[in-house]
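Researcher: Quick one. two chains, 728 residues in total.
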Amino acid sequence: MRYRIRKDDSCISCLRCVRECSFGAITAESGKALAFHHDKCTDCQRCVSFCPAGAIYITEDENRFRKNAVFSDDEIKEILLQAETGGVLLSSMGASGKNVPIYFDKMLLNASQVTNPSIDPLREPMETAVFLGRRPEKAERDISGRIIDNLPPHLELRTPVMFSAMSYGAISLNVHKALAAAAEKLGTYWNTGEGGLHESLYPYKKNTIVQVASGRFGVHETYLNTAAAIEIKIGQGAKPGIGGHLTGRKIIGDVSKTRMVPEGLDAISPAPHHDIYSIEDLAQLVMSIKEVTGHRKPVIVKVAAVHNIAPIASGIARSGADIISIDGYRGGTGAAPKRIRDNVGIPIELAIASVDQRLREERIRDRVSVIASGGIRNSSDAVKAIALGADAVSIGTAALCALGCHICASCHTGRCAWGLATQDPELTKRLDTEKGAERLVNLVNAWTREIKEIMGGMGINSIEALRGNRMALCGIDLNAKELEILGIRYAGE
Amino acid sequence: MRIIDNGNEEIRRPEDEEITVKRCLGERYVGCGMKNGTLHVEGIPGNALASYLDGGTVYVDGNAQDAAADTMNAGLLAIKGSAGDALAYGMRGGRVYVLGDAGYRAGVHMKAYEDKKSILVIGGRAGSFLGEYLAGGIIIVLGLGNEGRDITGYFCGNGMYAGTIYLRTEKQPLNLSDKLIKRNVDENEKENILCPIIKDFASVFSIPVERCLEGGFIAIEADKSKTYSQLYAAV
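Model:
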């Protein structure tokens, strides 16, 4: 038991909490008296948010195991669970490694004073558009001197914030609809994840990135051509090196149809793509996707940030891919083994800095664009990621929060009380797609305004000029090695 | 004879009903994403032949290289020679017939869905890792001319959770996983499931069907009592 549910005298016994709780933690006995089943509570805050009287409190359970310097409460509980079940611990959302630094919090941004005046984004134009894809190596002109359009296919974003890959199956169709509609309105992109693209979302193709993962679920010629770009998913930050497993329980109705997996059958994504054992094989998959889409769409390769991320990125850049998407240690997931989630991978800040540095050194930075994701919480994280060398960032958890998620990390149970990470029709209808899209648009618009303000303060008037501009950052509470990898100087230096 | 620049674009054009590619020598992505019509390939195509094949028929009179029929959705790919590694990876529907041998990792993560049922028939032998992660569909290895020998390599069917692998042999496959069940195929199953597929296979290559059906078959399937879900304990 982790949480304790309480109510005070202001409770009006309306039983709203009973109807809202999808985990069976609050029930009504004989139709009236509330019964709290503390052990089932996930602290999702649904009941608290909906209690009209403000009478419910969820607190950490004060009964703790005896304090121990080595074995924490959670450690002991997990041992007990495994001793009982013999199971691999399954968790969701991002890593909970408490001792892994969040480098975004250890970097501060610059601002102009006296020299190089700052810019007021309310008065002066500020460019937040970003183009993702390969840059032509040189400008070519025809015989009469006119520039020849030799720009390879690319994505055009009105703001450097996109939505991360989250599959239909892990999240509901309503979430996909909200993301797609928001992406269209914002002039950015949403990503299907590996669960296929529901036919009702085909009209959003101009703002859709479709994913090809090792399971190849729902992947066919029409799917590949109903997208602005195709992403080959090699790995994700929450579970690098691990495949996926959507339980048969979630493969019902349209999920089954969209994934093209029979109802009730598990959907296993093998850990590697078994047709990719080398960069040459990756190049072949990139090219076969380009062939099937008539060389009209950029191809993204998504990898998790791991130890040798710089040479890996160099290999991807040479594979013919147009965009590299790097997902860091704190990236979220609908389900992942807990030990993997919390112990594998490296923070996105270090990965982006080392990849950008390496690609520049090898003079291939212009061959690819770089998308950073994995724990981007706000606009300043986005600005810092871009200053470290990313072209754009991608948000998953933050987008879900805009739709109601309170990060209770129970996605893997399929009982999401906010109607996001579930396929139960009674729960999925809790998300109003139009309202949801509006909230996503609000969020990204607010971030875009803040990005403009931050850039303006630094005297920078375009994302292009911010990208890889490490002078815009300084470090605090970092050692020399960390500063070296991040490519920044210490505050005051 | 026409010489064309962008062959695949031409192959995918629906009005071209029958196309022959002559003197093929290692060109990759031949027939990639083709939806209908018939494509004859004379010679030896390169990697990723007929990947994302979405309908129509591709005949190859020579060998095929790696990653043929990758993520195939529908249609027929018939290879008169042998196929390389990673044949029919993630295939969901249609038929892949190889008269000769197949390399490593053939039929990995093949699937089936509603009217789509992927069928892979290998006339000769298959390398290691055949049908790993099989999620549906049928794989048949006939081992023609290899009677009495092992017709599959190591790790046959590892991690498979649906679908069936049929082998025309009496021998137990090498190091078969304990999460798989091996059983002998009875006459009824042979008649109703294997016969129609193998007859079609034999007629595509004009070979006598009797030889392909000679002797007993074994079937390998996932042990449903040992599923992936049992591995986990939710925190």
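Residues 433-457 of chain A form the longest helix (25 residues).
Researcher: Thanks, that's what I needed.
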